[in-house]
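Explain my protein.
***
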Amino acid sequence: MTWETIERPGYFGKKRNELYTHWDEQFGQDNWRIAWEFGENYFSKIPALELVYTTGYYEDLRANPYKVEFLKKWKDVWDTAKTNIDSGLDFGIQETPNNHYHDIAIRRSLKMLGISFEGKELLHIRWKNSKGFDYNPAMTPFHRPDLTPQEPIKDYGNKGFWWEKGIDNSIEEWYQRAKVLQIQK
């Protein structure tokens, strides 16, 4: 079985389920997939998150000890809801309608660095008014910007390339630009 890339779908937003249904109808269930390109390799979601996305956080934290010092002062981190902490290190546990991956990637990275949370309060790591805004994936540099595809991508979520309001070559930019729709040949 081989896979052929047919487009770079970019951000899905709230249209994810609608798109999946459309692709099931168009290509047949199990005849298409979403994958992430990293060099000459393509990964499904969980391996992409574990091997590439998390490594981006790990490399940033390893290079910036002050970020580690800030993070360890908290009890844990959350993105879409405080219940995110129940996901622990498991990307497969997504209890809210919106995915939350960077909280898990941060936990995994701290563990790889041998660091534990020490505080009593949770840190919100998403919005501009949160104390953890600098830890969201649009604000965190990607460790291999040379492997971020630059081909045009779609905007199914109709939000524009919102991650470009962050830093150049961010983890979020890689995540959205490296996403491909592939069909089985």
